[in-house]
Amino acid sequence: MVAALAVGLAAMFVLSLILGSTSVPIGHVVAALSGVSDDTDPLGVVVHTIRLPRSLTAMLAGASLGIAGLQMQTLFRNPLADPFVLGISSGASLGVALVVLASGVGAPVGFGAALGLGGDAAITAAAIVGAAGVLGLVLSASARIGNPATILILGLMCGYAGSALVTVLVAASEPERLQQWAQWGFGSFSGVTWERLRLFAPLTVVGLLMAALTTKQLNALLLGETYARSMGMPVHPVRLITMGGASLLAAVVTAFCGPIAFLGVAVPHVCRGLLGTSDHRALVPAVVLMGGVAALSAQTLSLLPGTTGVLPLNAVTALLGAPIVVIVLLRTRRGTLSA
Amino acid sequence: MTAVPLRIRDLAVGYRSRRGRCAVLKRINATARAGELICVLGPNGIGKSTLLRTLVRLQPPLAGAIELAGIDLMSMTQTELGRRVGVVLTNRIVVDTLSAQRVVELGRYAYSGWLGHLTGDDRRAVDAAIDAIGVRHLADRDVSRLSDGERQRVMIARALAQEPLVFVLDEPTAFLDVSGRVELWALLRRLTRERELAVIVSTHDLELALGTAHTVWLIMPDGEMVLGTPEELVAGGAISAAFSTPNIYFDRHARGFRVAADESATERTTAS
Fold this sequence. Notes:
The structure holds two protein chains of two kinds.
Chain A: H1 2-18, H2 26-34, H3 42-76, H4 88-103, H5 111-145, H6 148-171, H7 175-186, H8 194-212, H9 215-221, H10 225-230, H11 235-257, H12 263-275, H13 280-302, H14 313-331
Chain B: E1 6-17, E2 20-32, E3 36-41, H1 48-55, E4 63-68, E5 71-72, H2 78-82, E6 85-88, H3 100-106, H4 120-133, H5 148-161, E7 166-170, H6 178-195, E8 198-202, H7 206-212, E9 215-219, E10 225-228, H8 230-235, H9 238-243, E11 248-251, E12 256-259, H10 262-271
Parallel strand pairs in B: 3-8, 3-9, 6-7, 7-8
Antiparallel strand pairs in B: 1-2, 1-4, 4-5, 9-10, 11-12
């Protein structure tokens, strides 16, 4: 199954390079990928400078959001947990908004070009602080409340509060920036250039590795923290590492691509359904691959191939993801959410 | 075998809050020997779960010491603890999709490599635990689709795979029907003998417990813990004193509860 997903990811990757406002023949794509094409081939330049970094970004962002969602679903033992639902993405957005507005530069999608990697680093750091802040708040509340439904609502409220603050900050910014902010809110993989990928890629890979190296702990958590502890797992360090990893992934993606909904919650469920197990040793690689497939599909669809129109990325992920969430809710047995 | 895997000295259990400590049980002294099946009995809410949670370090003791195979419980690493104590709790586990085999394998957490890789020893322990509990036929089934009794047996097999010295179960029969309860008690009795385990079980199955356990730790309504064999505690009237109310009494010959005579019940109804 993992092999099939890998093939699917490779196919989707190539497809995302071919399709767009103008479709590029596969020969040019192959040439651009192998570095044979020169600067005189305009299609090769399009593939190399625009589509290749965008597709790489989509792949990494999808994998990151999927893994962050998986970690949080396991940690909170809640099938609906993901960075967006629990307000983590909003916390990250708030961090981004504060830094961008304080520095007086444009919206973050065009921000890397304006300030270079130093600016990206500042935005990313602020996003991580915001994400970790919200996650810490929700998790400390979850230690006291214990009722998963209440924690979910608390996370939603944190998310609304964070989004509201972002809106206030944005409204206070100059009118000509509003358009850029709206664009950022739609979510986009296009803002990450080769230059910015040099920061984006290592950060996401670190986050993904943190999940890949803690599959044993995540599996033990499937039985709940009490059982995990009784079997020999030190709960607090594991909780910290998992939270840290999920915050890092969600924050980095939000800083570079905007708040992207539904991938985090939907991808782990699709993988559980495909694999028929919650075992993280199988699930983590599957979620990485499936996250890439889902993000590339959403990205390619949002470009409305063959036309010059573009759909907001968040609209596409929501239209793909919302039905999946509904199916999960309907299939979830009684008691899981109200336990 | 007269090994004493668990020794409790002057233990006080309870909760710490900002206002201070609230001891639920105090000055507990007890031991658990290898091959001994111990039942913790007492009225609802008296602190049975608090005691068991303290014994397996899910919460810290307020005072006193717990020794596990001669080592202070509080000084152990989590891994050392995971290799010495197996735990089964009341609450139903909610797992999406995981085979019973994988659940039992989770019991090897404290032994397996850092990525959870199982060695030959791990596989042998898992196999032995599955066979000892008789859940081989469930191994490939999804635990979320098992009955409560089957799932509880899988959770016990998982704890057994930890190869513990002490096995602690908090009301393991709470969700089971009558035949499930009887079977579980028989299973615990057999495990205690075959595996030379010290088994400590809290329960409300008074009559089954009295018929099965070697030793009873009886917590009286005033919070004092009385130790003895079932026979001693029944004959001495401690069981009766702990559980009798104006409406029911404990018949020590039949080892069961009886409703108090009808006329007295009627009197009380009319009086109130």
